[in-house]
Structures are given as structure tokens and as C-alpha cells.
What we know:
By secondary structure, the protein is mainly alpha-helical.
Amino acid sequence: MMPFLLIDFPAFKPIALEIGPFAIRWYALAYICGIVFGWLYARSLLKKERLWGGPAPMSLVQIDDFILWVTLGIILGGRTGYVLFYNLPFFIDHPAAIFRLWEGGMSFHGGFLGCVVAVMWFAYRNGIPILSLGDITTAVAPVGLLLGRIANFINGELWGRATDASLPWAMVFPNDPTQLPRHPSQLYEAGMEGILLFTVLAIMIRLGALKRPGMILGAFILIYGLTRIAGEHFREPDVQLGYFWGWLTMGMLLSIPMLIVGGILIVLAIRRGAPRPIGAIS
């Protein structure tokens, strides 16, 4: 008999919107809404010259064009990362499954690398400072992370590690073959990678961080790495990978380089200082 303290997992339908033969799943809807909300937030930041210490380093038209590039970077990078980092043997045996995105399987770290490529390529082609474009991209990224983790929860996937049934918010996920009470780690990650990260970056932006190219980019990379490692302590590792050396997960391993890169970018941004406004007296 299930302990009375356990919370029943809500009976969500996998399809969020269905019109005739067309169906949009929650995961796809999270991507769509994340990109749209991120785009609107990016436009609002670009309109505020005081945040940049002068005219923004890119135009609204350029950020509109960039949306397609970053969307492709997220999807192609996220899928490639999942194939390479999380389930390569399976996809070697079943290569056609690589293209079945509706079945799930995206890697944040792969998607992030895809975004890096998109930022560098678009910035080079349009004469935009790479670090500033990276700042605006990562400033809005937590919106997508928040919605993506909520979609993971709705889908009943990427659940947490088993816990004591006395934990007030422990849940039994319908797709879990063990039917053990588990941490709803998707919601933990939504809070840390989404709400917390967005809040910290927003405060930094209000304090003038966009005036130091690379500061927001570095802070995003560093803080995400920390929150992902923290979240991995509650998340069940992928069954095909398990633990490395008895306690490390793939998510932790992929996040360690982010701590180093993020820290370096922050130090360089501080040393570089804010750009001097045009016409300033030296």
C-alpha cells in the first residue's frame, strides 16, 4: 500500500495541443515558448541603452534574424550531444532513431555548444561583438531551461533518485518500473537552472554587467555548471550510463569544464573593464 504522504503524480497527457491530425507535445511547446519569450526579452534589453552604456552592439533586426540561427543551434547541438554523450552505442545500432526527435533525447551541453557555434558564426557574418551576442543569448536562456524542465516533469521523465517515502513531496512516476518514491528533481532543476539563474543574471544586468562584454556569458556558464552539479545529486542518472567511479554522473562531468570556462570569462570581463563612452574625457 502506498504511504499516505506520497504525492500522486498528476495525470498529464503527453500532447499539449491537438488540431486535427496535428499534435504539439509539451516538450515541443516548451521549446517554442522558450524561444519566443527569450526573443521578446532580448529585444527589450536591446532597447535600453542605459544597460549597455550607449547604443546596443546589435540592432533589433539582427536579433530577429539571429533567432533562426540559435534555434537550429539548440536543436542540432542538443540532439548531437545526446547521441554522442548519452546513448552512442544505441544510435550506432539504430541510426534512423537519431532523427526521431519526438521520442525525446536532448542534451543541454550539446545544445549549448550548438548555440556557441551559432553565436560565433552569426557574429562574424554580421560584424557583431561575439561576447556581447553571447551575453544577450545567455541572459534569456534560463527562460527556455525553466520551461524545458517543467516539460520534463509533465512528461514524467528524467525523474529523481529514490528517497524515503516520508519526504512530503516524494512522488512515484508512472513510467518508473521500480515504482519507488522519488525526488521530483525536474522541479528542483527548473527552480535552480530557470528561476534562480534568471534572477541572478537579471540583477547583474541591472547593475551594469552588460557594459562588460563576456560578464553575463561567464556568469551563466559558471552558475549553470554549479546548479547542474547540485541538481545531479537528486537526479537519477541515465540507465544506460549509471555512475562513473561510483558517484559521478555524465551531467556532472560535462559541467566541470563549464566552471572553469565561466570563471575565466568573468575574470577577463572584470580585467577588461567597461568600455569608455564615446566622447568621454580621459
